[in-house]
Amino acid sequence: MEKLTLKETVAEHTSSWSQGRLTLQNYQGFWNVQNLHEGTVLAQQSFKAQPSDVFICSFPKTGTTWLKALAFAITTRQTFDESMSPLLTTLPHECVPFLEEDLGQIEENHKKTNFPLVSTHIPYPCLPKSIIDSNCKIVYIYRNTKDVIVSYYHFIRKWLNMRVEDAPFEEAFLEFYQGISWCGPYWDHILGYWKASMERPGKILFLKYEDMKRDPTSNVKTLAEFIGHPFSMEEEEAGTIENIIKLCSFENLSNLEVNKSGKHRPETSTSIENRLYFRKAKDGDWKKYFTDEMVRKIDKLVDQKLSGTGLVLN
Ligand code: A3P
């Protein structure tokens, strides 16, 4: 493995609303937290994708946990039926390895099995070159910007052990609006994948969190077909799709013991309680947090950024 170099880090920012507890690095135009920045550089330097790999790509807090659970349940359904799925006892993030932190495990998977799923928050322009060269399939999930901001605020706040009273939402909003957030700017993250999907038709599937909630059946069918595990007629008639949707639902996953009391990466400095991945899963929760001025500002910015792309985020 080549030596890790961080020479392209150009700026550092300590979030004011985090009372100095959250420092982000800017690398190749995007912000990241320290250990994931290092993981990104390491992946860029050494990761060798295989053409059969399927990447679950997302900006944090857009529905990654849900998409990982669904993709895992779809690809492993011949091995485990819903009553004995590893998802009942394991956090979805441990079922699907994360490129920035689980390089070793992914390399083992490549050697031992043909388990194809890998997840990442790395922006498209920063992806390891071998992912692009191998022409791997990518599934990208995105979500209403305002709900992402609220979800992000609570996730980071709880991760840093901060009380709401000590972490002003207005400041967190302003930073996100300026593009300074873990993996931000959000709109640039989306646009990188969106433009690539135009250049690589059939290789990048875009799923919208709100659409998946509104119509999970057709979205799960689309996902299964795209990742090469379509449902047979017999499976459809036997209710396999509905069973997978139920298994991966917020109501089910968030009430499992492992997701209520377990810890993710307990041995590391970024250890996190599993329950932080499950908050409300509600569309429009932002209405409780945003002032009219915030709505006006962010809607205007996002409309400008996505103008002419066909994507709607507000
Ligand atoms: P909220 O904070 O709005 O509740 P990510 O998985 O990318 O970190 O995103 C987390 C968001 O997805 C959180 O949103 C979380 O509650 C929601 N979520 C987690 N599991 C889900 C599931 N199975 N179905 C729908 N939403 C889910």
Question: How would you characterize this protein structure?
Answer:
Pfam families: Sulfotransfer_1. The structure is a single chain. The chain has one domain (22-305): Rossmann fold (3-Layer(aba) Sandwich). The strands form 3 sheets. It has a 4-stranded parallel sheet, with helices on both faces. A 3-stranded antiparallel sheet has the order 1-2-3. With 314 residues, it is of the alpha/beta class. The protein has helices spanning 34-46, 64-75, 92-95, 103-112, 129-133, 145-159, 169-177, 186-199, 209-214, 216-226, 233-238, 240-247, 250-254, 257-261, 292-306, and strands spanning 9-14, 23-27, 30-33, 54-58, 117-120, 137-142, 204-208, 263-264, 272-273. Bound molecules: adenosine-3'-5'-diphosphate. The site of adenosine-3'-5'-diphosphate has 22 residues, from helix 2, helix 6 and helix 13.
